[in-house]
């Protein structure tokens, strides 16, 4: 049975718990670009007509990602729910600390979920450790890798991932790579390798483009799987207005170039700020993460100052998103001296 999974972006929880009005919060609880794509004015047709599933959105997406083809879906979440319905059940490796929707979706469909940790988390108990260059466990048929990982920021190279793809393909399985945070690091992506069986890549417009409300994403995979998923997806899964906005964002190369540079700078600034405050921090251009033995206390201290960050419970840790402007950066910096006496693990 599927269960509710906690996520960032739950500012209403903080408002209810701390009694501070919404406008007084600095919400850093997600890894979404706080300065997302400037949504253009839309034609009335985008609202009045049925969404056109045969428009050029998928071709534009394939070109943007450097993939042979793409299938548009209602966000990565839709793909996560569909994939267990179309793949033969088997043992699947999923990170102990990663995006939380994968394990319950595959477990509910009868897959034997095996948890893994990376070498940076090897002190934690899991079914196996995922080590670059080493063979996967022999019984494993599928492997899910969020790359870079959310929240630990682990990043595997294409060569390492493709070697695992070959192992799994030989067993009649496949590698599933979630590249929701890959847009700032396009050279590390696997889109170009998705024409053949054994590899499924999921992409999202919610993080880099900041278009989380559009609920749009893409599956990059071989044609037979894309066809099967398209039948399961059904018609009109992405609204007309969302299609129009995503299309514009994927075509705006000037905005993409400028935003990559800004996020690389801001991501490094965030990790540096946290490190100077005593956190053992690492990150991607869109968020920073720190293991904290006293994560609950630190989250509470920040919340008391109107700053909301994501806390993970099974691996005590905090994830910080990017402030949207200099006022936010200064507010975060002023809050962090509380952490100089922290205890991390």
TrEMBL record:
Aminotransferase class I/classII large domain boundaries: 55-324
Residues in the signal sequence: none
UniProt keyword annotations, A-Z: Cobalamin biosynthesis, Lyase, Pyridoxal phosphate
Catalysed reaction, written as an equation: O-phospho-L-threonine + H(+) = (R)-1-aminopropan-2-yl phosphate + CO2
Classification via SUPFAM superfamilies: PLP-dependent transferases (SSF53383)
Biological process per Gene Ontology, one example term: cobalamin biosynthetic process
GO molecular function, one term: threonine-phosphate decarboxylase activity
Required cofactor(s): pyridoxal 5'-phosphate
PROSITE patterns associated with the record: AA_TRANSFER_CLASS_1
Protein's UniProt name: Putative 8-amino-7-oxononanoate synthase
Source organism: Silvimonas terrae
